Amino acid sequence: MTALAESATTILHRTSDLVTPALRDSVDMLDERLRLIAGYQLGWWECDGTPTAHTGGKGLRPTLALLSAQAGGGQPSDGIPGAVAVELVHNFSLLHDDVMDHDLERRHRPTGWAAFGEGQAILAGNAMCLLAIDVLRQADGPGLRALPCLTGAIHGLISGQSDDLAFENADSVDLAACLRMEAGKTAALLSCSAAIGAWLVGAPPAVVDGLAGFGFELGIAFQLVDDILGIIGDPAVTGKSASSDVRTGKRSAPVVAALRSGTDAGDALNELLTGGPPETDEEVERAAELITAAGGLRWTAREADHRLTRALGHLLPVSDQSALADLTTLAHYVVDRDR
Amino acid sequence: MTALAESATTILHRTSDLVTPALRDSVDMLDERLRLIAGYQLGWWECDGTPTAHTGGKGLRPTLALLSAQAGGGQPSDGIPGAVAVELVHNFSLLHDDVMDHDLERRHRPTGWAAFGEGQAILAGNAMCLLAIDVLRQADGPGLRALPCLTGAIHGLISGQSDDLAFENADSVDLAACLRMEAGKTAALLSCSAAIGAWLVGAPPAVVDGLAGFGFELGIAFQLVDDILGIIGDPAVTGKSASSDVRTGKRSAPVVAALRSGTDAGDALNELLTGGPPETDEEVERAAELITAAGGLRWTAREADHRLTRALGHLLPVSDQSALADLTTLAHYVVDRDR
Question: Which residues of A touch B38 (CB under 8 A)?
């Protein structure tokens, strides 16, 4: 493990210890059947309820929420309701997206709908989204102050996924539309995660805005890296099939950048993808090669770096040095992972 | 039209004039693609955006919300945010339920997912649910006071639909479990609709509780009548196929009451339904006959009447005579429709 990954992991684990008990309390409010699905989605147990060694996500969003409270002048623990809320919303969107995208695997396990059926997975997603709102509502004054930040992010998630689905059937998507979609799908909730703690502690507007801007740009960078991994990522690491985004015909940033590159490889890619996603393994491999040759991956990596720089620039109004250091570490970690 | 239907229709139309502009404003907040689906679901336009003669629902829930404000000591218009919220939540649940139940038609038109695809329908549903929360949040103090009433009802809807889906695969369902499911699917939101206006105007707890109890019992009665129509309703009126609930193998109250009747017809029905829903038209007709012969419809109709009586008993703390008269008219109308 690199020193960066080690520091980041330490920060992420610290959060997990603070947030998990509150997250458990929240999920325990659900009926038995929906609770089982929610806990499975969060990686706490198998589909029959047998406890697992932790297989959930990294917990990036709740960590940002706690650091946000600290950056806003409070204690990390002041951010707990926000951390619980963003983790619930994130998992709501994963549950629903997997239904809509017909994805069968996530984190090396069957997706929620594959394990429990489409209907129950949709319902468990709805319940988790609603729990997120409950958590803020129950945090009284500070929670209600933070509520628009959360609901705005959920609207962003919904719009981004709607664009994403629409793009699958679109003849042509430009880079601006592609980045707007990614802003909805990822940046909206990362922006909320990075600002919600500051909202909860009543931080000055300049700090709240700075943190929101940081999270937004970081979210774009994060998604761009995800897009790169969707084309050249190691299946053992990503938990998805090789070149999964190429297989599904997704119009992710590297694909769109390649198609719009004006290069011979870009034209060849366009020809290959006309009439639907590549069908054979050879075609998938050929498409991935053309995306690389047309500069699609290079453009995306540069844009991710550019967004990281912008993200860090937004942290200027943050004066708490400890929070600042941790946010910077996480930002570098997110953009440097696995590439 | 009977005198009862005429009075009820007058009350319902009055609401529509007050609520529709606010409902439009709310839906207008959505992105173009999701707005199109929401307005289609609400009966405002065809799937290409061409305006329709109104084909939406009766507007029972928003009407209850306005009468609730009046019954709580305020003006009907004080209930508008609540009316908008419950109508949005109702349509969110219809959009999602149609996806989960794979229903193709509602109100004589293709269901939302049939017209726009499963993914976009799920997303539009999510957006409408979130708009409902936004509407209350934006109504400041009174709206925030009413928020738990709304989120509690949404949790109830989710649990009820989850039970409903689970029952489809269950060998045996008892009447208590069946009524509990119906309480979630219908009574939770009707209870909220009948109480939310009173919450908004800050009515005394006894009035709020009475209205909530009224709406709850009315909701059970409403669902029981719906169950009867799902077996013997006229397709031209219900907008569904004849005996639609028999066709899908739904364990609705009349079916469960028949199966548990201890009669020969009940035993014959049990035999017919073992191994899945009836497949041919003859089998569907035979099942409907057995449900009737076993007393399933009679039991359900009696239970609906009993619930109506209990509902009206809950209105004792309401002193506004005009609201009381209108709530009573609506309650009778709901239970007497089409049987």
Answer: none
How much of chain B is in helix, strand and coil states, percent to nearest 5? 75, 0, 25
**A83, A100, A89, A102: which is closest to A41 by C-alpha?**
A89
Chain mean pLDDT for chain B: 93
Min CA distance, B224 vs chain A (Å)? Answer: 23
Best B92, B113, B133, B168 residue to mutate vs chain A (most A CBs within 10 Å): B133
DSSP alpha helix (H) spans, chain A: 3-27, 32-41, 60-71, 80-101, 112-116, 118-138, 140-168, 175-182, 188-200, 205-232, 235-238, 244-247, 253-259, 264-273, 281-293, 296-313, 321-336
Report pLDDT digits (tens) over A100-141: 988 898 888 999 999 999 999 999 999 999 999 999 999 988
Distance separating alpha carbons of residues B45 and A239, to the nearest angstrom: 43
Interface test with A, best of B34, B138, B155 (most A CBs within 10 A): B155
Q: Which residues of A touch B120 (CB under 8 A)?
A: 162, 165-166
Q: Is the dihedral of CA A122, A125, A126, A127 positive or negative?
A: positive
Please write the tens of the pLDDT for every residue from A311-337.
999 999 999 999 999 999 999 999 987
> How far is Cα A291 from Cα A258, in angstroms, rounded to an integer?
5
DSSP single-letter state for residue B187: I
Q: Which residue of B has its CA nearest to A124?
A: B158
Q: Chain A residues with CB inside 8 Å of B129's CB?
A: 126, 129
| A34 has a chain B CB within 8 A of its CB | yes
ipTM: 0.93
> Which residues in chain A are closer than 8 Å to B100, comparing Cβ atoms?
118-119, 122-123
- The Cα–Cα gap between A50 and B155 comes to 26
Ordered structural domains, chain A, with CATH: 11-320 (1.10.600.10)
Q: Which of B211, B216, B189 is nearest to B199 (CA)?
A: B211
List the 107-136 stretch of A: residues with Cβ below 8 A of B. Answer: 117-120, 122-123, 126-127, 129-130, 133-134
- Residue-wise pLDDT for B4-46, tens only, equals 999 999 999 998 889 999 999 999 999 999 999 999 999 999 9
d(CA B270, CA A124): 32
Rounded to whole angstroms, the Cα distance separating B339 from B329 reads 17
Is the Cβ of A147 closer than 8 Å to some Cβ of chain B? yes
